[in-house]
Design goal:
heterodimer, A: 4-stranded antiparallel beta sheet, 0% helix, B: 113 residues
């Protein structure tokens, strides 16, 4: 089946530093990947749509200069949280979209827990 | 924008009991997805419903999309501790795309042995 990985699974960093999170589709190519953010006991909030070879599309209220997205290949998208602050601490989940018999399906990564001290 | 409301927000049941989780949309649902999430982990795809009146089952979990396509229910029969987790419904903005999913707030299910 379609597998999506994320690295790292957990990261702790100091305030002001930048953190890069990788999202990889392991056994399929994904022209589109999505980045979500999840707060404790809350639902997933879509941050941006990452398209291979083009600029990411950000949702309203999401700072594109704060959350840099690069979709370098059909199997890799990266999210860089620049100059991280404690309020950026969250659970970040990516998903990769692939065509299926039912149209398109999204497969989710296991998530990355970011803690900014 | 589409909004999804799930009820109940949390549910505690005794092992062996049946339960139902509801997901109500502010707009017509074209593709309704159910996922399960363990705290701090990714989402596990359960089922996708597209047609009004559609019903799908997988093991002891059954999901339905009502005829008017604005509400879906997820029913678990004879619940087990392994069913515990957060259940999320998600919906896409149009019929042919699973992209840009909007999620409900989730339902936290606890199954006591």
């Amino acid at each position: 089946g379609a597998v999506v990985s994320q690295h790292p699974s957990r990261v702790i960093c100091k305030s002001g530093t930048s953190v890069k999170i990788e999202c990889r589709s392991l056994d399929f190519q994904a022209t589109t990947m999505f980045w979500y953010r999840q707060f404790p006991k809350k639902s997933l909030m879509l941050m941006a749509t990452s398209n291979e070879g083009s600029k990411a599309t950000y949702e309203q209220g999401v700072e594109k200069d704060k959350f840099l997205i690069n979709h370098a290949s059909l199997t890799l998208s990266t999210l860089t949280v620049t100059s991280a602050h404690p309020e950026d601490s969250s659970f970040y989940i990516c998903s990769a979209m692939t065509p299926s018999g039912r149209g398109y399906e999204q497969f989710f990564g296991p998530g990355t827990r970011l803690t900014v001290l | 924008s589409q909004e999804l409301e799930q009820s109940p927000q949390s549910l505690i049941v005794q092992e062996g009991k049946n339960l139902t989780i509801n997901c109500t949309s502010s707009k017509t649902l074209y593709g309704l997805y159910w996922y399960k999430q363990k705290y701090g982990e990714g989402l596990i795809f359960l089922m996708m419903l597209q047609k009004g009146g559609e019903e799908k089952s997988h093991e002891k979990i059954t999901a339905k999309l009502d005829e008017k396509k604005q509400q879906s229910s997820l029913h678990i029969t004879a619940s087990q501790p392994s069913h515990a987790g957060i259940y999320l419904c998600g919906a896409g903005p149009q019929e042919t795309s699973g992209s840009r999913l909007t999620f409900g707030e989730g339902t936290q299910l606890t199954v006591n042995p």
